[in-house]
Amino acid sequence: MTETVGSTATPDRGSAEDEQGESLSRRDRKRANKAAGNGKKQRGERKNVFARIGLFYRQIIAELRKVVWPSRSDLTTYTTVVIVFVVVIMALVYGLDTGFAELAKLIFG
User: Burial letters for 36-67: b for 16+ Cβ neighbours within 10 Å, e otherwise?
Assistant: First the structure.
């Protein structure tokens, strides 16, 4: 489980510990969830497909709102760094390839 605050993948309570800090057993957690009304639904009480799709898209939108989008200047900087890095690596590979080709010509004639 992730420890991210506010993530849809984490329970509201956080870790499964009681007030004294002792770990609860799986059975005790199930009982506590059932008593709080957080138990799993019975087999016949499953939401229909449209409700599940709607929930899925609402969760996507909620997660996208948490994204820190880069500014235009940040995006320009990141793009420039990537392009420069790729050009440098291309030059390095070209140089090594040319060097090894010349070395092979000298060795094998």
Answer: eeeeeeeeeeeeeeeeeeeeeeeeeeeeeeee
pLDDT in tens, 16-70: 444 454 566 777 766 766 666 655 555 657 789 999 999 999 999 999 999 999 9
**pTM for the whole structure:** 0.45
- Determine the Cα–Cα distance for residues 48 and 36; give it in Å rounded to an integer: 24
Residue in this structure with the two tokens 């770990």, named with its chain if needed = 23
Q: What is the CA radius of gyration of the chain?
A: 28
Backbone torsions φ then ψ of 3, nearest 5 degrees? -105, 15
For residues 78 and 70, the answer to whether their CB atoms sit within 8 Å is yes
